[in-house]
């Protein structure tokens, strides 16, 4: 029996990067996995097809995390189609870097709606379906713990909120046997932050290990939290950041 056999997971932003790695890892561990995406329909379908090829049920659904109706609808659709929801991974996120004077209202709305309101609404909708043993894992950021360089005011503001959400919900859902945690990745090689991008060497310089992590590094920690091994971990902030925040 695989560790997550019979469990149903919902991974937001599962078409690329960290979310894709998390979705594939949870499927490898035995879960049926639903991924949401915004624009990358083909890539999301490819992830779902890989999950199906592993013998699990995979499903890709377009759902904009910034749209409350779409968030609620996708959680309801998962519960209806699979009859349960065990694991929510709040991964979808919008990046933004820039000085405060160049940060417009539209940027603020997009980042806060995607990174703060979206995960809150996903957790709220999921909480109605999660049973004993349920899991919520939110992807925060090392930038919520250490703002090593200028330009991160909006992104760090948004990611700091994942800590409050996770800790407060850990308290609230603990009596139901549901754990809630946040993982803070360091620089991870994805489209959002390519390891060969112009800012990569600069960022690597702030880590203790002197380099980028892989999406699978984050997926491994999500898998640990999601399974039985994570049963006594809740309200925790777990850095998987190469030592960025030390
Ligand atoms: P990518 O940009 O590579 O992938 C983002 C994923 O989120 C895609 O699947 C994208 O879908 C989806 N997405 C973005 N906006 C929305 C939305 N409004 N609604 C639904 N889906 C959406 O990002 P990463 O994999 O690098 O990042 C994943 C998470 O990790 C984010 O929360 C990010 O902030 C966080 N993080 C990343 C770090 C890094 O160095 N990479 C470091 C610290 C934190 P689509 O493909 O359809 O656009």
What do these coordinates show?
- With 246 residues, this protein is an alpha/beta fold.
- It has one domain: NAD(P)-binding Rossmann-like Domain (Rossmann fold, 3-Layer(aba) Sandwich).
- It contains 7 helices and 7 strands.
- The chain has helices at 17-28, 41-53, 68-82, 105-127, 153-173, 200-204, 215-226, and strands spanning 8-11, 32-37, 58-62, 87-90, 135-139, 179-185, 237-240.
- Strands 3-2-1-4-5-6-7 form a 7-stranded parallel β-sheet, with helices on both faces.
- β5 (135-139), α5 (153-173) and β6 (179-185) form a beta-alpha-beta unit.
- It starts with 7 loop residues before the first strand and ends in a 6-residue tail after the last strand.
- Bound molecules: NADPH dihydro-nicotinamide-adenine-dinucleotide phosphate (NDP).
- NADPH dihydro-nicotinamide-adenine-dinucleotide phosphate binds at residues 12-19, 36-40, 43, 64-66, 91-95, 114, 139, 141, 185, 187-188, 190-193.
């Amino acid at each position: 029996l695989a560790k997550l056999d019979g469990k149903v997971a919902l991974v937001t932003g599962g078409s690329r990067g960290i979310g894709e790695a998390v979705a594939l890892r949870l499927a490898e561990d035995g879960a049926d996995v639903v991924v949401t995406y915004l624009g990358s329909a083909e890539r999301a379908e490819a992830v779902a097809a890989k999950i199906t090829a592993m013998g699990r049920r995979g499903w890709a659904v377009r759902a904009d995390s910034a749209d409350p109706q779409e968030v609620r609808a996708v959680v309801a659709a998962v519960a209806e189609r699979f009859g349960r929801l065990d694991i929510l991974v709040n991964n979808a996120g919008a990046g933004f870097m820039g000085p405060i004077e160049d940060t417009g209202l539209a940027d603020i709305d997009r980042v806060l709606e995607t990174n703060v309101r979206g995960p809150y609404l996903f957790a709220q909708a999921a909480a109605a379906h999660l049973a004993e043993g349920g899991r919520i894992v939110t992807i925060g950021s090392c930038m919520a713990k250490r703002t090593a360089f200028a330009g991160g005011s909006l992104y760090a503001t948004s990611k700091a909120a994942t800590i409050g959400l996770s800790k407060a919900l850990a308290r609230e859902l603990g009596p139901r046997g549901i754990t809630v945690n946040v993982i803070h990745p360091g620089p991870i090689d994805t489209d959002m932050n390519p390891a060969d991008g112009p800012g990569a060497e600069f960022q690597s310089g702030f880590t203790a290990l002197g380099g980028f992590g892989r999406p699978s590094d984050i997926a491994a920690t999500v898998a640990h939290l999601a399974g039985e091994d994570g049963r006594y971990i809740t309200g925790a902030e777990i850095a998987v950041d190469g030592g960025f925040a030390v």
